[in-house]
């Protein structure tokens, strides 16, 4: 185990961020490079070797957290990397992007700040890349079976890597021009530099996975022809249908879905544009939606030189400490969170609802009208006399997603059944109602976290492997019906 007195001798320290006035001038990751390694051994030593490691329950991947904490404490980076990769295909993604439900479930967190599990994880994997401990795992023999994976987000990539390593010939189809899904075009560069994706893709190519970009199944290639061409199909197309805001003035120019706005900023970093077609430069920006995607819009607007940034959330402001009754340990609490983007400026307004937009004579949005809301008999209701307007020359809608794309023909062409929430239905093996067609990630679960996506990809890979060969040694960390720890 790690130092038995580590949690008594050392307080919680997290990665240092670069000064705000420095980082808003570039698109590099916000953290100070190399700031974790000098402190991470002591931080890993805070792991208590508790009798029941609830961090395992908090993480759907079943990460072996106490084990790699111990190796990190001893600075045995090679062994730590092996334990980390035993349950997680892409720890450099989760270590940067996951909100860390494992830390919310940490036993130490009952009465102290929890172990910095996420920082330990990213330290291990970054060290592993540096020392060459991450190498292609080429299968010893090929099965002769072929698999198509639709979508190259975390679920699709995890499923593809698992199935390739099992000996199947796997092709990943991605409708965008580059591999990565929302990791590539939905996550801003300052949260995760895309070099982390690129080197994983090279590893997967070396293992034998093939990638087909710019191909949308349902439009460019029919689902029927795909199913005839491959022995099995894994659908990991994500939950990409954005929730809209049907209020007067929605048709005005300058109002965009977050996933219309964010990818263009990433394409500038890829070299596709000198300047993005949609930019916040010199504009009063309003972001509607208080979640992580909204925060991504806030940070992007800061870097583009917005005149002001306001983020609106319809729900009341969460508390800053866990409510022991409503959100007891070890559940993942909804707390007031200050991300790196919020540190950079802007205003956050809670418990408000947009009533309508107002534009100029040229049809460009200029003002957003809103009112305060409150719960009355369990329903959100506008409070009379609280109406006001704020300047809005660029509005981004970051209110979540309602399901997988059903307009491109993929669902109908396969003949897939949907569940009561509009997601693609699947059985205990992640198989749909169509034999040989499996579904993983947000397309089957609905909008969720990156750790759930990777867990789904790994589990669906086991189902597909068993379908193809009659048995499987691949791990399946979750069942389709599993959900996050809740009251």
From TrEMBL:
EC code: 1.4.1.13
GO MF annotation terms: 4 iron, 4 sulfur cluster binding; glutamate synthase (NADPH) activity; metal ion binding; oxidoreductase activity, acting on the CH-NH2 group of donors, NAD or NADP as acceptor
Sections of the chain in a coiled coil: none
PROSITE patterns: 4FE4S_FER_2
Cofactor: [4Fe-4S] cluster
Keyword Nucleotide-binding: no
GO biological process annotation, one example: glutamate biosynthetic process
UniProt domain 4Fe-4S ferredoxin-type: residue ranges: 38-69
Catalytic activity, as annotated: 2 L-glutamate + NADP(+) = L-glutamine + 2-oxoglutarate + NADPH + H(+)
Keywords per UniProt: 4Fe-4S, Amino-acid biosynthesis, Glutamate biosynthesis, Iron, Iron-sulfur, Metal-binding, NADP, Oxidoreductase
Pathway listed: Amino-acid biosynthesis; L-glutamate biosynthesis via GLT pathway; L-glutamate from 2-oxoglutarate and L-glutamine (NADP(+) route): step 1/1
InterPro entries: 4Fe4S_Fe-S-bd, DPD_II, FAD/NAD-bd_sf, FAD/NAD-binding_dom, Glut_synth_ssu1, Glutamate_Synthase, Helical_ferredxn
NCBIfam families the UniProt entry points to: GOGAT_sm_gam
Name of the protein in its database record: Glutamate synthase [NADPH] small chain
Organism of provenance: Streptomyces coelicoflavus
